[in-house]
Design brief:
By secondary structure, the protein is α/β, with parallel strands linked by helices. 54% of the residues lie in helices and 12% in strands. The relative contact order is 0.10.
Length: 203
């Protein structure tokens, strides 16, 4: 099994360097080190990332909490918060984004690897329950899945029939059937079981 790939987003270079050394010593692969939010999307779109170590208080236009929302809603990538602040307001904002863990700097090196192990274990447990993100489905794909088609995929993943999807979304069965046909064509499958198998493979 290949090592988990971890992205570090930390605006203090020495801390980022220490985290990278510690994680590499425990057998993890460092997918990149970013010191600001500017390159986050291009990195996520072009690399396979299993976990993000994320500083809450980044310099720049986006905070760590804003990045966390992108990681969760658009990419489905788990993250661990790193912060020097432990005040109740920061904790409340951080908790609302459902991080896998929360490490207050300066944290002990011995606390880092267990937090990563737990986060990756939660990801594995969740992978059988949660569909892959639209970005992961569209990765390196010429014909992109649209947001409307992704909504259909989520319903199919949940075990809904075409008729149930049509009823819930106030669509005609023929419209749903057309969406499903387009989804199969773009992904290269021919049936719902093949679609579900594909989604599980990339999850």
């Amino acid at each position: 099994m290949s090592p988990a790939k971890i992205l570090i987003v930390e605006d203090e270079p020495m801390i980022a360097y220490d985290i990278a050394l510690n994680l590499e010593a425990h057998g993890y692969e460092i997918a990149g080190v970013l010191h600001s939010a500017e390159e986050i999307r291009s990195t996520l779109n072009n690399k396979t990332i299993d976990l993000v170590m994320l500083d809450i208080n980044l310099d720049g236009e986006m905070s760590g909490i804003e990045i966390a929302k992108i990681l969760d809603t658009e990419y489905g990538i788990p993250f661990i918060y790193l912060t020097s602040y432990s005040d109740s307001e920061t904790l409340e904002q951080a908790a609302s984004t459902f991080p896998s863990a929360y490490l207050v700097k300066p944290f002990k090196e011995k606390d880092l690897a267990p937090a990563v192990q737990m986060a990756l274990a939660k990801k594995r447990d969740r992978s059988d329950q949660r569909a892959p993100s639209i970005n992961r489905i569209n990765n390196n794909r010429v014909a992109k899945i649209t947001n409307a088609e992704y909504a259909i995929i989520l319903e199919l993943w949940a075990g809904k029939t075409n008729q149930e999807i049509a009823n819930a979304a106030f669509l005609s069965p023929n419209t749903v059937k057309t969406h499903v046909k387009n989804i199969y064509s773009k992904i290269g499958v021919h049936s719902k079981p093949e679609l579900i198998a594909f989604l599980r493979d990339i999850n």
